[in-house]
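Why do we care about 3D structure at all? Because function follows from shape, and shape follows, mostly, from sequence. That is the central idea of this module. The next example makes it concrete: a single protein chain, its amino acid sequence, and then its structure expressed as tokens.
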Amino acid sequence: MKQICTSFQEAIAEMKDGSILMVGGFGLCGIPENLILAIAEKGVKNLTVISNNCGIDDWGLGLLLQNKQIKKMIASYVGENKEFERQVLEGELEVELTPQGTLAEKIRAGGAGIPAFYTPAGVGTPIAEGKETRTFKGKEYVLEEALVADFSIVRAWKGDKMGNLIYHKTARNFNPMIAAAGKITIAEVETLVEIGELDANAIHTPSIYIQKIIQGSQEKRIERRTMKTSE
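And the structure:
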């Protein structure tokens, strides 16, 4: 049995100023939106946030940006957020841009206990500046260090009271690897079931990676709605 929280504020109560935070999701798909709202309400500052991107201006991690709660953002894409752009240009926010595949592997390696790895992505670009490079079979690679977090927050479709998680289709995205890379991982689930109700062969994140779990409904906003016009 993991800690089953009764409120989102209880779930993030241990989070402090200066924490390193990993956040699951891709755009607005699969983000732990209620946990993000709780962090915004708590008001913790100087956060280093690791996520694929930083939400949009008025939802997701964009809410933490509005509150000036993020000191540094490690991400692969930042193009949907005007407040993000403003803070970067005015020197209010430190940004570490990372190729998306490299970011995914840095997080996966952190969860697997692998301290670093070599990758060809970014060789010969500003991304490789100041980093060790090495040649394997005539091809140059750059050394990238793994990422771990003080807290990881993820969202799942279903979870049981042991902490096993199942994600729904593309909402799976970065969530499984981020769940593994947090010292304390908090899972927000749409449906919480009893132990034994989930198909063991369908579990994406085993309970060993989860410390806290909470059930809550999501608003599930659409980041950019595109409609087909009738002919």
